[in-house]
Fold this protein.
Amino acid sequence: MNFVNVVSSNLARVGYNPSTREMTVVFHNQRAYTYSGVPESVYTGLISAGSVGRYFHSFVQNNYPFRHGF
């Protein structure tokens, strides 16, 4: 999984694996969460959003099952 640094006050970087449809979000506090079943369009929307945090809260958090870590 390759990670992309994002400009956000909370999120530091985001990675996506298209074969498993898993997206990992790493926060500035180094906590990581891996979300399952995420369409690639949601990943590309997140990394290109004008407000990464707002997009994350609206379209990712509480919308996909997740686990702590990678």
Observations:
- The chain has two helices and five strands.
- The radius of gyration is 11 Å.
